[in-house]
Amino acid sequence: GEVARAAMVTNLLTEDNLPSYHREAAGSFSGDGAWGTWVNRWTAEENRHGIALRDYLVVTRAVDVIALERARMEHVTNGFAATDEERAKHDSEFLMSISYVTFQELATRVSHRNTGRVCDDPTADRLLQRIAADENLHMIFYRNICGAALDLSPDQALEAVAAVVENFRMPGQGMPDFRRNGVLMAKHGIYDLRQHLDEVVLPVLRKWRIFERTDFGPSGEARREKLAAFLEDMGGKVVRFEEQRDRLLAREASRREARAS
User: Fold this and answer.
1) In angstroms, rounded to a whole number, what is the distance separating the alpha carbons of residues 110 and 195?
2) CA–CA separation, 64 vs 244, rounded Å?
3) Whole-prediction pTM
4) Burial (CB count <10 Å: 0-12, 13-18, 19+), residue 213
């Protein structure tokens, strides 16, 4: 269906922009020793996700492969980089990066897993389940590193975590039809604000015990209060979004019934 196609293409084009992600990761983490080994290994695994997704779409002819290739060329040519504002928000690019990829890998896992469920094809479901499992392993690695940073330098690490949560954007922004496809995905529960809050942001913050910790200094305490207020506001937005979506879906259903009768 249209929703599954939009989600598959969005997920694939996101994976396709790997050259930019590799450059960003290598710049933040360096190519030295264990970090260089990790970045290269991670890149090889992410590349395989793109290969597997494209092979599936080409073999099944589920999408227009010529349009898909044009979209890939446009998206990879545009690239992806942290904005100047994002870089300026924090004095440690390394801490910003490991915070961002912790949330982003988990968001990608949720998106892949839910896309598999709406594809109505057991092969696609198994494929995306396997890719989602990879993304989960990547997330755990970054979550552990960021957790250690919180133990070593609580206030500084919290500043990075909070800045990422408050300014989060998916890496697919800027791809062709990203807004339209993102709306479709949110409307049909593949990746929406509720999932972002309940399945991505809050579980990671709980794992790091952000709201239970007692090792923050005065600046960390103040930053934590600001983050709590942001999350409360986000909770209100989730409820409003779901109410609007329910009304919209009900209207569409009644229109379909009217056409059928």
Assistant:
1) 8
2) 32
3) 0.90
4) middle
